[in-house]
Structures are given as structure tokens and as C-alpha cells.
Write a structure and sequence with these properties.
706 residues; alpha+beta; Laminin; 6-stranded antiparallel sheet; 13 helices; 23% strand; disordered N terminus
Length: 706
């Protein structure tokens, strides 16, 4: 016997005795608290858990499991698991700093609950994120003390900042710095202590607190109402990694295997070094399942009873730690494949092989026919491409030509309908670079309309202006060409002003003035700033789209006509009732002043927030005209949400009088779009900078029109 043999024997005996004593003490220990399973090495009560960090308290009449903490905060546990990963899910309180109306701090909590008193846990960097809420807020958390080896006190700092331009800036589901931001965390984090930046918070009753917390990445979806959450009661679900970390000399598998405290006691278990170092954990070997921390805890898996996980297309036979699968007698797999992966088929006699040959011949004919159909389909696609002007448009640099298949992929086979236009449905799509687009039908193109269509697409693609919806490209391999435009996420102005209750957004006077001014700039550009003068022909609030920042975009040129610089009118228009120039009814002529008339109606919609026909029989134009004649002010018609102060009413009156100028029945007395844009711009500048030295930037004397 070697000198080391007695020592090895003694260690083995001590390990066996320690295991028996521990098993005896665990006999009769609770295995559940409320709805939470409590597997060993966790435990409730003396002798039921491996070491201090694994102790679980069962409170509230045995309905709630909590982790021990050195602070006064209880840490509720919602789940504990040893397989397939060592994890615990807990509820941690949020950190906060709250303010009064003058910006003074009234309450503060940094989130510290000392979840890792005994070193067992790490906050999972793979499953959690750090979230900050507020409207002028910066917050961060830190981990891994540098011990003098780094430039700063900690190796990692994680945080972000948020802002809000107004009370309504934060949007549900959007966590991108407006009211909410989130960042990933680094490994090794052991607590949720938060530091807040000292930034001004006076007059921010819509965001009374800075808030920060760790949270399960998949469970938190921001809501604007969270800015006013009850911070003293709020808690968030957080995933913890745990590992065996109870001996400084046994924090890796290599060291732990020779320790009397080695945790992987099941005969079919194995040790794994923790990714969130230091420490290790145990798991059952492949083909076994159960609790590797208990004697005989890892038991054989009968794979044959779980075909959805362990497939077998033949006869299955379970063995210790694995299973065997073979084809029945008279059956085989093709090319000697594995019946765990391939179906077993009957071994063919001569007659079967002859039948297979005949079937193969028919299959060849079917493939040939399919090939012919594909060739015919491609020829048809090419015919449509040429008919719709493809040979001209493919040479234009700033127009992208999409194939039919590309368009199906972009719109996910037309699965998301945004609405219905005059020529068909409008679909939402996503380009390969994640750019959102709107895809809509144009007009059916004949040989006679081919040149007009191509010219109109070219002109639209050349209209580069922030207030005109941008044409990105088209698809010509379809009966009716499809046009691809930039996407305006806030829809059209009509729906925002008059739509359903869930779309009835609050719009400040300044925002409405911005929409009016920028829309006028877009129409001015169309009338006078392009190589071809363009009459829109269908100006209305439904054709003014709003992007994510409520920037207006003039859209829907399907009813417009392109005119040369020297032409004054066209005989073609398909406009909308309520917006049509009465002169067009009388003469059939569409001029630039027709767009001015229609824009006057849009101005009235903006300041009154009423459609052209409201209360079933009232005309917006007639009623506003009547009120203005009677009171020399449109105040009785203005939207109450924006006619608060005398200055507001004055601005609204100026817009109303400008609208009446646009609606003048005498075409020659109407301003042009350049004048309209200039007057709105002057009115916006005067309101912004308080330039009220005169009655107004340009005072329109109201002319009584009878």
C-alpha cells in the first residue's frame, strides 16, 4: 500500500459520513413554499440548505418565499431552478429620487438590498437590462471593484439618460431616451445600487421622480404612465445566476473535485465552471435528469417516451444514458442513413423499382411543365415591366426598381394594410436596412398613358423637399404599378384631428401653426420651386401625412397633373367634396389658386378641429364665414383646447382671416402659396419671439363676401 492510500481512504470515509449526515438532516425538509419549488441546495429551516446563501424563508403564513437580506427589504422569490441552468427569479425594488414642484429632493432610495450577502448570487447579464425612467434623468449602476488596478473605482459603469420636450413626449412601447432608456449590463454585478445625476426637475409634475431598476429583458414594456408609478411599492422581476461559492479554495471544478464539500454528489452528475465567475455548478450528464446535488438525484431519461425530443423513425430501445433506434425487419433507410433522422422505408422488390421508375418519368414531365410555366411567368413579368415604362425608369438614378418578389418580402405578402387609397390598398413595409415604407397602387398604365406615367414618376422622384413625401421607387412587374414611399408613422392629419378617440391626440397651438406653415412650404415648392409647375389637385387634410415628429408631408399625387411653366390651367382633376374650388365647378379649370382654396379649408380644420361637414348638416366654411361676419372674430368656432389666452385667440384670428383670403370666390383676390407660406412663417416667428409691436406680422383686413 502506498503512503498516500490511508489519506485517500480517510477522505473518502469523511465524505461519505458528511453526505449521510446531510441527507439525514434534509429528510422531512419542506420542498415548496406557496407556488415556489425549493430544490436542494436551497432549503427552508436549519439543516435543510447547503450554506447560508441558499437559505430560503417562507413567510406570510407559508405563501411567500424570500431570500435573506442584510437590509430591511424582503426579497420575494418567484422561482428557483437547478436545471437546465442554475437560476433564481426574484422581485427587487426600484431605485428613485423624487422632487417637489421647485425641484427639491423629497425622497431618495438607491435600490440597495444586499441580495448577495453570502456571495452565492450574481445578477444575470444575459437575461436582465438596466432601465432608467424620467424626463430629465441620468442614472447608472456599477460593479467589479478595481482594487486600485483601474483608472476608476469600478471596472464597469452602466447607465443612460432620458429627456422629455413636453408632458406628452413619452410614448407607450418606446424606450429610446424619451422618458425611458435601457442598456445591457456587464457580468459580475452583485447588487442594484443606483447613482442619479443631479439635474434640474422644477415644474415637472408629469415626471415627479427619477426611477431606475434592473429588470428581466423580456418582461418589461414601457408605458408613459410608469413615469408616475408608486415608487415606494414598485418592484421588478430580476434573474439571478447562482453557483457554489462557499470555499475560497474550491471555486472551480478542478479544485472542488478534491474537496470534502464537493457539491456534485449524484453518480451521473458533472461539474461546470460558472460563466459568471467565480464558482461552479452541477448538472446531470446527457441522458440523465434530476437534481445533481442529491445522492442518486440524476436518473436515467427514457428517451423512447419522448419522441418529440428524441426522434426515432424505427424501433426505439432505451439504455442507460442514451437510446438505440433501428428499422424493423424488411425496412431500411435510404443510403444507409440514421433512423433517428430518416424515415424507414420498405425494401423494394423488382416490381416496386419498376413502378418507381415509371413514377420518376411522370415526375420528370411534371418538372418540365413547371419549368415551362416559370418561363411563361417570367415572360409575362417582362411584358408588364416594359408596358409600365421600365425601359425608361430603370435608367433614372434616384428611382429604385423593385421586383415583385422583393415587394412581397418588403410587405410580408401584403400582411399589414395601412388604409385604402383611390387606386387600391396602401401597405406597410420594411426595407432590408429596416427603413419603414408605405407601398401603394398607382394607376393602370396603357400604351397611351405610358409616357404620362413615366414622366410623373420621374418628376415625383425629383421633388426633394422635407414637406413632400419622398418617392423611393416602384414595382413595374404587376398589372397596376406599385409606388414605394417613405413612411409617416403618425398617419394623416385628418385622422389625427377627427379620427377615433384612441387617435385623438392633443395638439398645441404651436404644433398646429408648425403643421400649417410647413404644409404651405411644401405646396409653395410644388407650385414654383421645381422644374415643372405641379398642381396637386386634391389638397386636403387626409393627404397631409405626419412623421414621428409631426413634420407634415404633402402626399397623394395620383390626381395631380404636371404643367409647363407657361400653362395656367388643366381640364383634369379628381378632387374631394368639401375642398373643391367653386370656380372649378363653374369653369372646369384647375389653377394654382385652386390648391390655395383647398388649403384654406385645411387651415380652418386646424384651428377649429372640425371636419368640412360636422354635426351632420353644418358646413365648416359657411359657419366660420357667418361667425366672422357677425363677431369680426372666429373665436366661437375655435378649438377650445388651443384658444386659452388672448394671445392664442389673436393668433387663431390671424390664421382664420388668412384662410378666408384663401377661400375668396374671386380667384384673382386669393393670395398665392408663396404669400400664404410667408404670412404663416411671419406669424410663427412673431409668436415665438414675441414680436407684437404691430397688430400682427401681416394683418388681413376681412372683406365681407356676399
Amino acid at each position: 500500500m502506498s503512503p498516500a492510500a490511508p489519506s485517500l481512504l480517510l477522505c473518502s470515509l469523511l465524505l461519505a459520513v458528511a453526505t449521510l449526515v446531510a441527507a439525514a438532516r434534509r429528510h422531512g425538509c419542506p420542498t415548496k413554499c406557496g407556488d415556489v419549488d425549493v430544490p436542494y441546495p436551497f432549503g427552508i429551516g436549519a439543516g435543510c440548505f447547503r450554506s447560508k446563501g441558499f437559505e430560503i424563508s417562507c413567510v406570510n403564513n407559508g405563501t411567500t418565499a424570500v431570500l435573506p437580506s442584510a437590509t430591511h427589504h424582503a426579497i420575494p422569490v418567484t422561482s428557483l431552478s437547478v436545471a437546465p441552468q442554475p437560476e433564481a427569479k426574484v422581485m427587487l425594488p426600484v431605485a428613485y429620487r423624487c422632487y417637489n414642484s421647485t425641484g427639491g429632493t423629497v425622497s431618495l432610495f438607491d435600490g440597495h438590498v444586499d441580495v448577495n450577502t453570502h456571495g452565492v448570487y450574481r445578477i444575470s447579464d444575459a437575461r436582465n437590462a438596466f432601465v432608467v425612467l424620467g424626463c430629465n434623468t441620468g442614472a447608472y449602476t456599477s460593479n467589479s471593484i478595481s482594487n486600485g488596478t483601474g483608472r476608476y473605482n469600478y471596472q464597469y459603469y452602466m447607465g443612460c439618460f432620458t429627456y422629455c420636450s413636453s408632458a406628452g413626449s413619452a410614448m407607450d412601447g418606446r424606450c429610446a431616451s424619451v422618458g425611458c432608456c435601457r442598456v445591457d449590463i456587464a457580468p459580475g454585478l452583485t447588487d442594484n445600487v443606483v447613482s442619479f445625476e443631479d439635474w434640474p426637475h422644477d415644474s415637472m409634475d408629469y415626471s415627479p421622480c427619477d426611477i431606475a431598476f434592473l429588470v428581466d429583458k423580456d418582461s418589461y414594456d414601457f408605458r408613459a404612465s410608469d413615469l408616475r408609478m408608486d415608487v415606494e411599492r414598485a418592484s421588478m422581476p430580476v434573474w439571478l445566476d447562482w453557483a457554489i461559492r462557499d470555499e475560497e479554495s474550491a471555486l472551480t471544478c478542478a479544485a472542488a473535485r478534491n474537496s470534502t464539500r464537493y457539491a456534485c454528489v449524484s453518480a451521473n452528475s458533472e461539474c461546470v465552471d460558472s460563466a459568471n465567475v467565480p464558482g461552479y455548478f452541477c448538472r446531470c450528464k446527457q441522458g440523465f435528469e434530476g437534481n445533481p446535488y442529491e445522492d442518486n438525484g440524476c436518473t436515467n431519461v427514457d428517451e423512447c417516451t419522448r419522441p418529440e425530443v428524441y426522434p426515432c423513425y424505427g424501433i426505439c430501445k432505451d439504455t442507460e444514458g442514451t437510446y438505440h433506434c433501428k428499422c424493423p425487419s424488411g425496412y431500411m433507410t435510404t443510403n444507409g442513413g440514421d433512423p433517428k433522422k430518416q424515415q424507414c422505408i420498405r425494401k423494394f422488390p423488382l416490381q416496386a423499382r419498376l413502378a418507381l421508375g415509371i413514377c420518376s418519368g411522370f415526375l420528370f414531365l411534371a418538372v418540365a411543365m413547371l419549368f415551362t410555366l416559370i418561363v411563361c411567368h417570367k415572360r409575362r413579368m417582362n411584358q408588364l415591366f416594359q408596358r409600365n415604362g421600365g425601359s425608361v425608369l430603370e435608367k433614372v438614378d434616384n428611382i429604385r426598381i423593385f421586383t415583385k418578389e422583393e415587394l412581397k418580402k418588403i410587405t410580408k405578402n401584403n400582411s399589414h394594410i395601412l388604409g385604402k387609397g383611390g387606386s387600391g390598398y396602401v401597405y406597410k413595409g420594411t426595407l432590408e436596412d429596416s427603413t419603414m415604407v408605405a407601398v401603394k397602387a398607382s394607376i393602370e398604365v396603357s400604351e397611351a398613358l405610358k409616357e404620362d406615367f413615366t414622366n410623373e414618376v420621374i418628376i415625383q422622384s425629383q421633388m426633394i423637399h422635407k414637406n413632400i413625401i419622398k418617392l423611393l421607387g416602384c414595382c413595374l412587374e404587376v398589372d397596376v404599378p406599385m409606388l414605394v414611399y417613405e413612411f409617416a408613422s403618425n398617419g394623416n392629419l385628418y385622422d389625427v384631428l377627427h379620427g377615433k378617440a384612441n387617435r385623438h391626440l392633443p395638439l398645441s397651438l404651436d404644433l398646429r401653426l408648425d403643421i400649417a406653415t410647413e404644409s404651405a412650404e411644401g405646396l409653395k415648392y410644388m407650385h414654383s420651386s421645381t422644374n415643372h409647375t405641379i398642381r396637386h389637385g386634391d389638397v386636403k387634410s387626409a393627404n397631409i401625412l405626419l412623421d414621428g415628429n409631426f413634420m407634415p408631408k404633402i402626399s397623394d399625387f395620383g390626381t395631380s397633373k404636371l404643367l409647363g411653366r407657361d400653362e395656367d390651367f388643366t381640364m383634369f382633376v379628381v378632387a374631394s367634396m368639401g375642398y373643391i374650388d367653386p370656380v372649378f365647378h363653374q369653369t372646369g379649370l384647375l389653377t394654382r389658386k385652386s390648391d390655395v382654396y383647398s388649403f384654406g379649408v385645411v387651415l380652418l380644420e386646424l384651428i377649429c378641429r372640425k371636419p368640412t361637414i360636422y354635426d351632420e348638416h353644418c358646413s365648416l366654411i359657411i359657419e366660420f364665414h357667418r361667425v366672422l361676419v357677425k363677431n369680426n372674430s372666429g373665436r366661437a368656432m375655435f378649438d377650445k383646447d388651443i384658444s386659452v389666452t388672448e394671445e392664442d385667440v389673436f393668433v387663431l384670428d390671424e390664421i382664420g382671416k388668412l384662410a378666408v383670403e384663401c377661400l375668396n370666390e374671386k380667384v384673382e383676390d386669393r393670395p398665392d402659396m408663396k404669400e400664404v407660406a410667408e404670412q404663416l412663417l411671419m406669424l410663427r416667428r412673431a409668436r415665438k419671439y414675441g414680436e407684437w409691436n404691430c397688430r400682427s406680422p401681416h394683418h388681413f383686413e376681412y372683406k365681407n363676401q356676399t
